[in-house]
Amino acid sequence: MGKRLTQIATRTGDDGTTGLGDNTRVSKNSLRVHAMGDVDELNSHIGLLLCEPMPDDVRALLVRIQHELFNLGGELSIPGFELLKPEAVAGLDAALAQHNATLPKLEEFILPAGTRAAAQAHVCRTVARRAERAVVALGAQDALRPAPRQYLNRLSDLLFVLARVLNRHRPDGSVGDDVYWNSARLAAATDPKNKKDSAT
Length: 200
Description:
Blueprint: E1 17-19, E2 25-27, H1 31-49, H2 56-77, H3 86-100, H4 116-141, H5 146-167, H6 184-190, H7 192-199
Antiparallel strand pairs: 1-2
Helix pairs in contact: 1-2, 1-4, 3-5, 4-5
């Protein structure tokens, strides 16, 4: 296979435009470039997450997602092109079902906290939501297939679930938990006095 990159500093973007995959040039502030940039940022954050300790199956899943996000970015860079396959969305659905089945039911909203890996997974989740919004905005202007939007929507959900999985994975063998929002409703529900009153 031939080399795809011949040089990095082309200076062709000095005028505030950038080239798309079909050789057209658009403003670096265009909706398409914003969507491409958010997907690229998401992929970079997942790369950072992969620096953390995690179960082997989660690592393999995230590496696969990085490749799929690269396909998604490529599709966004070529108007009218299809690169992200429908089975990529189905794969996220399957991963969601698999990992969610291992988790206890949520008692309350949780904070983006806990282990560093879990916190970074939440960062990835929020960037995925931003990328989804950017793709939705682009789709209101240009014709897009539903797969990119669906993929990012599923991925943000999956990253939430993986954050919970990662909060339970401790290298020392201990079992962690979610970090719950300290809401008045949860405090009242877990107050021993309230439990005693309800039993009488």
